[in-house]
Amino acid sequence: GKFNRVAGPGIVFTWPIVEFYTLRIDQRVATTYFGAEETLTSDLVPINVDAVLFWVVWDAEKACTEVEDYYAAVSFLAQTALREAVGRSTVALRRDQLDAEIKDDIEKEAAGWGVDIISVKVRDIVIPDELQEVMSLEAQADREKNARMTVVGVEAELAEMLAEAARVYGDPEAALKLRTMLMQYDTVKKSKG
Hints:
The protein is α+β, with helices and mostly antiparallel strands and 193 residues long. The protein contains 5 helices and 3 strands, in the order ββαααβαα.
């Protein structure tokens, strides 16, 4: 029941009866696929998220002595971190932000196990079809609002320029006449007349 040594790579000999149990630790980069099915966001929208974790064992002794099954522990920790990160986010979550949040959460716990987290990559975020339609309509409304705000801004600038031209002409009603002429010109231009 006492840790003896770290040996390897290569051929390793053990003393029969004295050394009775050995573990092999792979120190290459490992990938773990994990997901969070039907996880609720902070705005109570159920979404499915799949991700891949890239990690490596950097301390074989800790991986053997600090946790019973480091591979399973990292997998469960990743899934839990994903659920927590999604639960803190709204439905309009960003992949890169979610990647960083999950990575930070996993690193805090796994560092004591001799495991280093290289990166987390969110593969897929599935939002319910009904919500996708609503989000699309909301995005279209935002774009239309922005377009109208731009038109209003341009119209205000144009009104100032026409008022200045009316002062030059010395006729206060000239601004309205100039605007009418511009609108007629735009109409003729659009109709290719």
